[in-house]
Amino acid sequence: MKQPFYFSLIVLLGWTSLASAQTYDIDELRRRPDSNSLKVERPSLDIRPVTLPVSALDLRVIYWRHWSSFGINANQSSFSDNWTGGGVNSISVGLLLNHKSDYTRDNTNFVTELMLQYGKQKNKDQQPRKNNDRIFWDNKLSLKVSNHWSLFTSLTFESQFDMGVTYNSDGTPADTISNFMAPGYLTESLGIEYKPDNTFSLRIGTGTARQTFILDERLVPRNGGTRFGVESDKRFRNDLAFQITANLDRNIARNLNLKSRYNMFANYEELGDPSHRLDATLTASVTRLINVTLSGILLYDSRLHEDIQTSQTLALGLLYKLPR
């Protein structure tokens, strides 16, 4: 009787253990092991400051950009002694130097531009005559206040290298009409500038002053006359004026560039008679060095002459640009 009792007790305890035990699916454990099956120790964090090495490249931001061009233009014509169509042997040579520097940082921009031009022409049996002569140096500092508008101040200098003379009917020099710093112009301007892109700008100088100099004693006006707006026996004149200056430098085709500058200067005491000057140059690049240039000047200034003055030049020449 005791053995069946003990056997029943053992069976009852076995079923109780099986009921309380956790069952495992072997395939499920292979795919997703029980997270509690192994003890995972979490390592302690070791945070220490690290010093990074300084780059050896030593990179710098360059805010300056520079462009320069050097050119020589030439025209030549010759005729044989028995040429019945008429004409005279002649040769002309012109030199030019242009330089522009631009500094741009944040909203500040400074531009300086220098243009030097000089040329002479020699006809047979005549003395050489100059056909081009200009010194132009423009400096502008601007502060951008919106996408296309800036406040600016500028300083501009203009004059010429050599004497300008008139000639008699036989080709000999007659009178000297201009010279270096006779006249010479120094213009200071303050105002606003509109610049929608890098090829066009428009300056409106509401506060502009221009000084006119005559440093050649032979050209100082005498006997109650005036010259270049300067009164008799004086070498200097100062004007307060309103000024508009427009600059265009744009490639209108692959090898065709148009560069022009228009300036309007209106003395506040003579607003009804402003002076106007338009310079335009169309350059066609034949090769990297050879180009054909068509340039023209339209000028009206009642202080110089009561009528409009014009100048036009067509030339073939060499032009070297930096950077290339």
Q: Termini separation (Å)?
A: 118 Å
The CATH topology is what? Answer: Porin
Overall residue-averaged pLDDT value: 88
| Uncertain regions spanning at least 5 consecutive residues | none
The percent range for helix content is: under 10%
> Beta-sheet strand percentage?
over 45%
Tell me the overall shape: elongated
Strand order of the largest sheet: 1-2-3-4-5-8-9-10-11-12-13-14
Number of strands: 14
Give the quaternary arrangement of the chains.
single chain
Radius of gyration: 42 Å
Number of helices: 2
3D structure, described in words:
The structure is a single chain. The protein is mainly β and about 325 residues long. The chain has one domain (about 90-320): Porin, CATH 2.40.160. Helices cover about 10% and strands about 55% of the residues. The protein has 2 helices and 14 strands; from the N terminus they run ααββββββββββββββ. It has helices at about 1-20, 25-30; strands spanning about 65-75, 90-105, 110-125, 130-145, 150-160, 165, 175-180, 185-195, 200-215, 235-255, 255-265, 275-285, 290-300, 310-320. The strands form 2 sheets. The protein has a 12-stranded antiparallel β-barrel with strand order 1-2-3-4-5-8-9-10-11-12-13-14. It has a two-stranded antiparallel ribbon with strand order 6-7. β2 and β3 (about 110-125) form a beta hairpin. It is elongated, with a radius of gyration of 42 Å. The mean pLDDT is about 90.
